[in-house]
Amino acid sequence: MRKLFDWLMEHERLLVVITLALAAAVGLQVRFCGGKMSPDLTVSSNQTKTSSPGSNSSPVGLTGVWEMSVQKKSGGTQNWTLTLTQNGEALSGVIRSEGGDLPVNGSIKGEELSLSAKRFGTTVEFPAKFDGETMTGKMKALMIERQWTARRRKS
Predict the structure, then answer these.
(1) 53 pLDDT more than 70
(2) Number of domains observed in the structure of the chain
(3) Which of 97, 99, 113, 139 has the fewest Cβ atoms within 10 angstroms?
C-alpha cells in the first residue's frame, strides 16, 4: 500500500492532467448532447394507424418523414427531421439535425414507441407515446432530459 501511495505522490501532476482531461471530455459530451441533440426531425409517410379495436397490436404507419421538435436547455425548440422505416414492430431510421445524422433503431408496441441511438459512446433514448398522428416523449442522454414531439410531414 505504501508503494502505491509513493507512486501516486510521484505522479501527482500526471494524475491531475488526466483527471482534468476526463472532466473536460465529459463536459463537452454533456454540452453536445444538450445542445446538438435538440429537435427537428422529419419523416414522410402516407400510412395511418390501423389497429383493431380492443387489440394490443402495434399501429401501422410510422414509415415516413416526421417533423420533430425538441426542447432546448435554454428554452425554445430545435427542429429535426426523422425518417423512419417500420417492419412489424421494428423501427429503424435516421434523425437529421444541425449536429449531423444520427441513426436510430427501436420498436413500437401498442402506443409505446422506443427509439435509441449511440453518439460518442453514449446512448440517446427517445421513448414516446404514439396516437396515430403525433409522437410525444422525452429524449434522454446521460443526465439530460428534453421533451420532444414529432408530427407527420405534410406532403
Answers:
(1) no
(2) 1
(3) 99
